[in-house]
Amino acid sequence: MRLDQSEFVVPVTGIFPLEVPNSNMVDCKEIGRQVTALRKSGRCEEALRLGYEHLPKCSDSWGLRGSLAWTVRECKVKSFDPKNRDTNPQDLVAAVKEIQSLNDFKLYDEVSVFVTASFEAANHLVEAQQHELALSVMETLDKQSLSRTPNSFEGKLYPSQIQRWYSGMTKILVGLERWEATVVMCEEALATGLFPDDESALWIHYRLALALVESNPDRALQEFDLVFRQKPEWWVIGHKARCLRALNKEQEALEAFKMALGGIHSGSIIFGVKILEEMYEIVGDVELKSLIVQTLRKIRIDGGWPIKDKYEDMAEEVGAGDASDFSISDALTKLADRQAFNTVRSAAPRTKQERVVIASGVAGTVKRIIGEQQNAGFVSVDGHGDVFLAKNQNPDLPWPPQIGVRIVGDLIKGFDKKKDRESVNIADSRLA
């Protein structure tokens, strides 16, 4: 098969390719090795140009086409930064198609560049809030051809391709708020036997619960109870409160919302904005309503954000004055039930979860440290973008690490409480 190279022109200036013997006979395997060597040395554009320069004469060389496919993945997919506004999400879709064309002789294998790139591209697109494009990428994969065998590396377990497919699809469908499709996909995933226990199925149950809040709040409560046994956190209680609201149990919902707020430190109360807004809707007491709206307004003042008309209307409704000197900490003594949260959390059965490692031995630069207690931050990881850094997941790292210092560690799956979705954390890191 010969490929039309017009789609994949790689503009390069000021770069000199490796020398190739001046002969009509081309050693395609050697060209493939050179492409791989260039890729591993970080010379992506050279690798792409060299590969495509010789591809017309080596179109039947699986070695060269495979090397070129892995190079496209490295240069155009893995290195894509979804937070950079100058990047074009459509480029990710095009890169996956490019890899599919290059590697069409063997798309599916235990280690497949096409499958790997598809998952990476979909994750980037979700982070860029391009859920429709992410769905289109995932739908190019043949579910039946994906491996069901979990991978292990250096004693750490990685989910199988089909597990990653179900995890990715349910995440995307939740992002699109396609609740009926989410329920179908989650139930299908649970029925496959690929997630044999509550721990491995945690996020499938979580997304199933999210999808059922409005259509079947009773069942959603059961699913959130299951999640809470694994993750006894405030944000799960907040979701349970929404289920109670859907069941018209507003007093119980209010108590649950207060309990959820009890799990949020006053310095991180921004995470509880949605809860506060929902509390305002069901609270009857004018004093409590005033405390809620003043807290919401003060959060925006402290964050340096513009006035929100909705909050100003709420303030006028309850006769609340200026919020500039308002004390959020004092308000939370009445709005949050920390004792109830601590009691419920300590009583929840805890099961140690298997840590899901995304990549081992990655290097990055500490960008900033956050939080009132300076116990978290962000690291710019080479080839992966910004990831979360938590003090309790990095016991061997001098704390707090200096801004700009280089560290080495493992990337693991985490959970972004603010955005209600999975995240990537760096763990077990040390100074480079």
What is the topological layout?
Blueprint: H1 28-40, H2 44-54, H3 62-78, H4 89-102, H5 113-127, H6 131-138, E1 151-153, E2 156-158, H7 161-175, H8 179-191, H9 202-212, H10 217-230, H11 234-246, H12 250-261, H13 273-282, H14 286-303, H15 309-318, H16 328-335, H17 338-347, E3 357-370, E4 376-381, E5 385-390, E6 406-416, E7 421-431
Helix pairs in contact: 1-2, 1-3, 2-3, 3-4, 3-5, 4-5, 4-6, 5-6, 5-7, 6-7, 7-8, 7-9, 8-9, 9-10, 10-11, 11-12, 12-13, 12-17, 13-14, 14-15, 14-16
What does this molecule look like?
This protein is α+β, with helices and mostly antiparallel strands and 432 residues long. Among the domains are: 5-110, no CATH class; 264-335, no CATH class; 357-431, OB fold (Dihydrolipoamide Acetyltransferase, E2P) (Beta Barrel). 49% of the residues lie in helices and 12% in strands. The chain contains 17 helices and seven strands. The strands form two sheets. A five-stranded mixed barrel has the order 3-4-5-7-6. A two-stranded antiparallel ribbon has the order 1-2. β6 and β7 (421-431) form a beta hairpin. α10 packs antiparallel against α11 and α12 (250-261) crosses α17 (338-347). 38% of the residues are buried. The model is unreliable at 1-23 (pLDDT under 50).
Structural class: alpha+beta
Helix and strand element order: HHHHHHEEHHHHHHHHHHHEEEEE
- Percent in strands: 5-15%
Terminal-residue CA separation:
46 Å
- Spatial strand sequence of the major β-sheet: 3-4-5-7-6
Helix % is 40-55%
Gyration radius from CA atoms, angstroms: 25 Å
How many helix segments? 17
